[in-house]
Amino acid sequence: MELRTMRYFLAVAREENMTRAAELLHVTQPTLSKAMKSLEKELGQKLFTRHSFSIRLTEEGLLLRKRAEDLVGLADRISGEFSTLGDVAGGDVYFGLAESYQVRYLAREIKAFRRAYPSLRYHITSGDTEQVVEKLDRGVLDFALLADEPDSDKYEFVALPEKDAWGVVMPEGSPLAQKSGGCVTVDDLAGLPLFCSEQAWRNDIPRWCGDRMDELVLEGSFRLAYNGSVFAREGLGYLLALEHLIDVSEGSGLAFKLLEPRLETGIYLVWRRLTVLSPIAKRFLAHIESAFGEEGGSPGLNPAR
């Protein structure tokens, strides 16, 4: 199985059309079609369902797409790292980011770091903690920003200066939004349809409600808080989410209230133990450790930076 074939496969999967993919790859359509048939034969699986004017991936094809994206991404990383070994002013750094308002701290430090290394190229992948950690473990990423305490046996990490607070996103005209008082309790949410990420439902919400978890009803789970907020705006349920992720300003149609008792989640910049970082990634790590410190302190977090 050649890397070139994986690039061919990803182009076909993206375009869902053999002719368009061939044009983008600058190869003939028969050449591309032959390569895809050979790939199916090599793997012993049907990867495509062919229709009159389009191509769809089978379940096996979807699995290969995920693996191929990581494989090609890692190959590009290796090529980029070696091509920039002599470039003392730059190189590529790969980040995976879970949703958090604290991303702003990372953005500020990247901006500050680029002053010293103007040729820095950074690549961002977003997702929930599970998705980001998977790519970190596979070596596709240098660093991950996680809304969950890392496993210290597998990872090294620096805590960001603040913690994110949990609350409820709801239609601004809902009874819960009109309730007097600024916070939401378990009594308020018991029996109501709730939206939440699977990770938070397993790890964070039980810390808040304790033995009353059975009184909460999970209507649906969302990896991205924004998508959940769309459903909440339609009155389908109440979204449990971190503060500041969703626009609840006047005119948004939404309101937000913090949970009571207060529930917080720490945010961590994580990298794998014993991993070999590229020269530019090592320099960035030194910069971050200087800015945040081992305890997630606040040196260098002046907004003016």
TrEMBL record:
Stretches of the chain forming a coiled coil according to its record: none
Protein keywords: DNA-binding, Transcription, Transcription regulation
A molecular function (GO) term: DNA-binding transcription factor activity
Domain of life assignment: Bacteria
Keyword DNA repair: no
Domain HTH lysR-type: 1-58
GO cellular component: cytosol
Family: Belongs to the LysR transcriptional regulatory family.
Name this polypeptide is given: LysR family transcriptional regulator
Species of origin: Eggerthella sinensis
